[in-house]
Specification:
This protein is of the alpha/beta class. The chain has 2 domains: 3-183, Rossmann fold (3-Layer(aba) Sandwich), CATH 3.40.50.1980; 194-317, Nitrogenase molybdenum iron protein domain (Rossmann fold, 3-Layer(aba) Sandwich). Helices cover 35% and strands 13% of the residues. The chain contains 13 helices and 11 strands. It has helices at 3-12, 66-72, 95-98, 113-118, 133-140, 160-171, 174-194, 222-228, 261-265, 268-271, 274-277, 290-297, 300-317, and strands spanning 41-45, 48-52, 59-61, 79-80, 123-125, 145-146, 203-208, 214-217, 239-241, 253-257, 281-285. The strands form 3 sheets. A 5-stranded mixed beta sheet has the order 9-8-7-10-11. A 4-stranded parallel beta sheet has the order 4-3-5-6. A hairpin with a 5-residue loop joins strand 7 (203-208) and strand 8 (214-217). Helix 6 runs antiparallel to helix 7 (174-194). The longest helix has 21 residues, at 174-194. The chain is globular. It starts with a helix and ends in a 12-residue tail after the last helix.
């Protein structure tokens, strides 16, 4: 598996965003008035430009979160990439939009190109897919294909706003995407305003890896950008921290996944950190649970859910009172 895909899979359980939809297994919108029209549209991505000539009716999502972005706009893909380690079909933030539909899979860790072709897609969405040139060449021979829009060469990781804008444009729903973006940005701003202690505090988002190291996520990873939207400061770049360098995690706030509070505090190096001793740590548990996975999707639907889930924990961790117990997720 490519390193970039491993990093996506490694802690966020991604695959790793609400409107009413029809309940069949075809791409559908909540009503016929939602389309902005305006086709054809041209979208730039890692491998060049893709032209979408008309509003698509058979969309296949091949990345780690695109299904949610489509669902947020009232479009149910005819097929999607499955999740690596999370029971994504039960993800709470998407249940209303799914309306009971179980969308067929076309692979998970690896894409199944034959299954994608069998769906006869007229648009293949992969702005967060980490596909390579060979895969893109095959996919674009089936239908207009949108590859990664960030996180390659010198192009920074795409924000959820940028991905939503691209998906909205490709689906002919730019205005809906803009309206939902504004609403979610307002929710982030209101949450930060209600919790002014968030602003400017340093935060580490760390994942405990199987080999005992810690993956510290930075601005090059969409999972960490959630916290910048709440006003926190995070590192510029992701890096792997060895056990002897755990002091790098001793920031104003630590958010950590991969082990429980009890498991982590048996590690004397973790227990010795001031951020742990003073209970400024948010423990979000296993990668297969909802909150870490909501960060992995980093979609309009999952981020709305994540704000509600994380805010009480972050508020307790930043109240400057060591006696305050940070609640469990």
């Amino acid at each position: 598996m490519k390193k970039s895909v491993q990093l996506v899979a490694a802690g966020a359980s991604v695959l790793a965003l609400a409107v009413g939809c029809s309940s069949d297994n075809t791409t559908a919108t909540s009503d016929g008035s939602g389309s902005d029209a305006g086709f054809p549209v041209t979208i730039e991505h890692k491998f060049g430009e893709t032209v979408v000539d008309a509003e698509p009716t058979r969309v296949v999502t091949i990345g780690f979160n695109e299904q949610d972005f489509a669902l947020a706009l009232g479009v149910k893909p005819v097929a999607t990439r499955g999740n690596l380690s999370y029971d994504y079909r039960q993800r709470p933030w998407a249940q209303e939009a799914l309306g009971g539909t179980e969308i067929p899979e076309v692979g998970s860790t690896d894409l199944n190109l034959e299954q994608i072709a069998a769906q006869a897609p007229d648009l293949i969405l992969g702005p967060y897919s980490f596909i390579d040139q060979g895969q893109y060449d095959q996919l674009s021979g089936m239908a207009p294909t949108i590859a990664d829009i960030g996180g390659y060469d010198n192009v920074p990781a795409a924000t959820w706003q940028e991905e939503f804008a691209v998906v909205g444009e490709a689906l002919g729903k730019s205005q809906e995407a803009q309206d939902q973006t504004a609403a979610l940005e307002q929710k982030f701003a209101t949450t930060e305003s209600d919790n002014p202690q968030f602003t400017g505090k340093s935060l580490s988002l760390a994942f405990v890896m199987d080999d005992g190291s810690y993956l510290l996520l930075g601005k090059d990873d969409i999972r960490a950008l959630f916290f910048t939207d709440l006003g926190f400061e995070i590192p510029d770049a992701s890096e792997t921290i060895s056990p002897e360098n755990l002091g790098r995690l001793d920031t104003d706030v630590l958010v950590i996944a991969g082990q429980s509070r009890e498991q982590l505090q048996t590690n004397p190096l973790i227990a010795a950190l001031d951020v742990v001793k003073q209970d400024r740590t948010v423990y979000i548990g296993s990668f297969s649970t909802d909150l870490p996975s909501a960060l992995g999707y980093s979609s309009p639907l999952s981020l709305d859910y994540a704000i509600d889930g994380f805010t009480p924990m972050l508020a307790a961790a930043t109240d400057d009172d060591p006696s305050t117990v940070v609640p469990a997720p």
